[in-house]
Design goal:
By secondary structure, the protein is an all-alpha fold. It contains 5 helices and no strands. The protein has one domain (23-156). The chain has helices at 2-34, 36-48, 53-85, 92-114, 122-156. The model has no long low-confidence stretch (mean pLDDT 92).
Length: 157
């Protein structure tokens, strides 16, 4: 009995820490949005090595598009963790949130792919975002299947 209580406490601690990490990352994205223009200038001029206005504009647009995708992903992760904390696991609300996470990652990948016009190395960031989207999509599919099996089992009993 004590093992179950300790295991449950451990799991809730992990969820709380994950929620805290989500909040920290949301705060970092907000801070990045606040200083986005200087960051975009630095990336364009120093990392990419381009000094034309079109490269700067493209980098700035991609930067802010990626932060919007970041908000979608991070808020969905936070809500998903909140549901898990309430023991809402195999629920369509969670699969919907996983869908938002997947779409946010796919959109971020496309935003970064647009940056390849000025910096070919951005394609690697796109591939990472798409790979993460694939992983979340696989987990979402497993959850959808588990929900379907649970519903069928409930109808059987």
């Amino acid at each position: 009995m004590a093992e179950k209580t300790e295991e449950r406490k451990y799991k809730s601690d992990v969820i709380r820490l994950s929620k805290l990490a989500s909040i920290v990352f949301i705060a970092l994205v907000v801070m990045a949005d606040i200083v986005g223009w200087p960051i975009a200038k630095y990336v364009t001029f120093c990392w990419i090595g381009k000094f034309d206005i079109m490269s700067l504009i493209l980098t700035t647009v991609v930067f802010y598009a990626a932060t919007v995708c970041g908000y979608i992903v991070l808020f969905s992760v936070y809500k998903l963790l909140s549901n898990m904390e309430k023991d809402i696991v195999f629920d369509t609300k969670n699969t919907k949130l996983m869908g938002y996470i997947t779409m946010g990652l796919i959109a971020a990948g496309f935003a970064c792919a647009c940056e390849t016009f000025t910096w070919p190395g951005a394609i690697f960031i796109s591939i990472v975002a798409w790979f993460m989207a694939l992983i979340v999509l696989c987990v979402k599919t497993a959850f959808d299947k588990a929900i379907l099996m649970k519903d069928e089992m409930d109808l059987t009993i």
